[in-house]
Design a protein that fits this description.
Layout (H helix, E strand, L loop, with lengths): L7 E2 L9 E2 L17 H14 L12 H8 L3 H14 L2 E4 L3 E4 L5 E4 L6 H7 L4 E12 L2 H7 L6 E11 L2 E11 L13 H7 L6 E10 L2 H7 L6 E10 L5 E10 L3 E4 L12 H7 L1
Parallel strand pairs: 5-12
Antiparallel strand pairs: 1-2, 3-4, 6-7, 7-8, 8-11, 9-10, 10-11
Helix pairs in contact: 1-3, 2-3
């Protein structure tokens, strides 16, 4: 049984959700001195608490009036912030009962099958999305040329985006593809693999290297979580059926929302032959 979130008061009925109390909230997180609208500042603060695990799934938020007093904003501002998070799927508003946390999706990806992020989300009934940060072409760096097996001076397409599941930021993905396979990175709006397949360049297999890391301030801002939060850094090298390199991807996945699963099989112990038994006797 999961324990109530920190700074949450257990309800008198053990089956009822815990109620989040005021000390959890930082009233300095919302300020009219900032350019961002107040409701967006409040939504951002609540989102960080939910995604960071400070508020548990199914916990009840305080009433609109209490939140308005806590952050010195109007109830209209609170209502817009809560509606924004409800639209993202992070909150549920129940008529006559209040507002409750709906935990962000947690995704498990098997490492034994090569699939795109979009395919992973669709297979789990989630909606994949992207916030594009960069789609450009340029000359391959010496590091990229070495990994992709390119000559110095060859051009590549670079795609950098935030990957979303049901509107929730899950990963920062940086892809590099030789321009002969993808001359126009602007052609990619959803699945990169779909575009490559349509051009006759079929992802066949991949090698992935995973390492534990923590998010920098810039990465945490893009993923709407706290700096220093745990993350998985993944480098994937994707190959064509011919063995040539198709893609280099370096991504940072949120450690609180993404699990990578590997299935292992125990190999059967070898049975010594009669000849081996006689030789050892």
């Amino acid at each position: 049984m999961r324990s109530p979130a920190r700074n949450a008061v257990p309800a008198a009925d053990p089956a009822a959700p815990a109620v989040v109390v005021e000390p959890l909230f930082d009233n300095q997180a919302v300020s009219s001195a900032r350019a961002l609208p107040l409701y967006m500042q409040l939504a951002q603060h609540l989102r960080q608490l939910i995604m960071g695990g400070a508020i548990n799934d199914r916990d009840a938020l305080p009433a609109e009036r209490e939140l308005a007093e806590r952050f010195s904003v109007s109830r209209v501002t609170v209502r817009k912030a809560l509606q924004s998070l409800t639209d993202e799927g992070l909150l549920q508003q129940r008529q006559g009962a209040g507002t409750f946390v709906s935990a962000p999706p947690r995704v498990e990806q098997p490492l034994s099958v090569l699939t795109s992020f979009t395919e992973d989300m669709q297979s789990r009934g989630l909606t994949a999305g992207s916030v594009w940060l960069d789609r450009t072409t340029g000359t391959a760096s010496s590091d990229e040329a070495l990994i992709l097996g390119l000559s110095l001076g060859e051009r590549v397409s670079r795609l950098r985006r935030i990957r979303l599941a049901n509107g929730v930021p899950m990963a920062i993905e940086n892809s590099v593809v030789p321009s002969r396979f993808l001359p126009d990175p602007g052609a990619v709006s959803g699945s990169l693999y779909d575009v490559l397949r349509a051009r006759g360049h079929i992802p066949h297999r991949a090698l992935q290297r995973l390492s534990a890391t923590s998010l920098t301030e810039d990465q945490a801002r893009l993923l709407d979580t706290q700096p220093g939060s745990p993350a998985l850094h993944i480098e994937r090298r994707t190959f064509l059926p011919t063995g040539g390199m198709l893609e280099l991807v370096r991504s940072s996945y949120r450690g609180d929302a993404y699990d990578f699963v590997v299935e292992l099989q125990l190999s059967a112990p070898s049975i010594p032959s009669r000849h081996d038994s006689e030789a050892g006797s």
